[in-house]
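Hi R.,

Quick one: here's the Putative NADH dehydrogenase/NAD(P)H nitroreductase SAMN04488061_0133 sequence you asked about.
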Amino acid sequence: MTQKNPLEDAALDQLFLSARTHNKWQDKEVSNEVLERLVDIAKMGPTSANCSPARFLFVKSDQAKQRLKPYLSSGNAEKTMQAPVCVIIGYDLEFYEQLPKLFPHTDARSWFTGKESKIQETAFRNGSLQGAYMILAARALGLDCGPMSGFDNAGVDKEFFAGTNTKSNFLCNIGYGDPTGLRPRGPRLAFAEMAQII
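And here's the predicted structure, written out as tokens:
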């Protein structure tokens, strides 16, 4: 492999430094092709034993948004209805059934079979990681994001994941943000407040 160079400042700005959580959206469609590309990028991020438990449900149609609306907190309802797409980021508690395909060089499925706490812990942790990769992939493709909690997980699971072993983790509105809806950026902790080198 060749030596990798640090990303240019413009790329760091788009991914992190100037990127913001959006609450207001332009009336501009996000195509299905862009959503497929987003997943193709996000799925390449690392997970333990390549377990890949995240499941992404893109709520895009008006009909699907109306199904989601009753489970949103009052502060999240209007902006989610306005967003071109709301992604339900979930995690599959039967992820380990895919391990013979995803991690074929050993019997990784046996690491999880019948071990409920390990299944839950692994699915939630790695599904959360994949949700973060999805946000970065969306930003890399020129989209803006509005990740959020503030919803009825049990209600969303019943409405959208009934009959499956997938559970909702968090939601993320995606589209092309309207900067007039941005609040001032919140402060961040200094290095010494959040990190050590030992």
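Helices lie at 9-17, 32-42, 62-68, 74-82, 99-102, 116-140, 153-160, 191-194.

Cheers,
M.
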